Amino acid sequence: MMQFKNERDREDVLNSLTENMNEEFQAALQYICHRISAKGIDEMLSDSFKSAALDEMSHILFFSDLITKYGGTPRFTPWPIDQSPDVKAMLTSDIALEKKARERYSGQLERFAAYAELAGIIKNVLDDEGDHEALFADYLARLPGPAL
Ligand SMILES: [Fe+2]
Ligand SMILES: [Fe+2]
After folding, report:
1. Exposure string over 100-120, b if 16+ CB within 10 A, otherwise e
2. What digits encode the pLDDT tens for the residues 90-142?
């Protein structure tokens, strides 16, 4: 069992892990919807949504496994997702999600720097989110017409 400095830290970590797990569910489900909707429009983009969705699924399990390991109970919230059929709207929503994730993980990386295992996992996930955001932004920049 991981040693926490105090009970407040333990609660803080478990609350953050719960938030992360649920946000990762939101991203995974949203990208699967976008993978399906983009299939008949842009094959390459559709594949990119799938690979991002699979990354997000790994992230869900990184965080849920830590909740269990640290003595918590995984708790699920509703996952509101963008279901737009329009590629530009999808990418705009996905980029916003990735930005939000990067901000969340950057903040947690500072707050939890003393906990090496946790910080290491957050750092790996943060790197993936950076890749996703860059990929989506690249697609969006290549689409014809003005940005939303
Ligand atoms: Fe993620
Ligand atoms: Fe991501």
Report:
1. ebbebbeebbebbeebeebbe
2. 999 999 999 999 999 999 999 999 999 999 999 999 999 999 999 999 999 99
Considering every ligand atom shown, identify the ligand nearest to the alpha carbon of residue 124 and give its number. 1
Please, which residues have CB within 8 angstroms of residue 24's CB and are 6 or more apart in sequence? 56, 57, 59, 60, 63
Separation between Cα atoms, residue 5 and residue 109, nearest integer Å: 16
Alpha helices in the chain, H assignment, sequence order: 7-38, 43-69, 87-111, 116-142
* Homologous superfamily assigned to 7-141: Ferritin, core subunit, four-helix bundle (1.20.1260.10)
Compute, in angstroms, the gap from residue 115 CA to the centroid of ligand 2.
Answer: 23
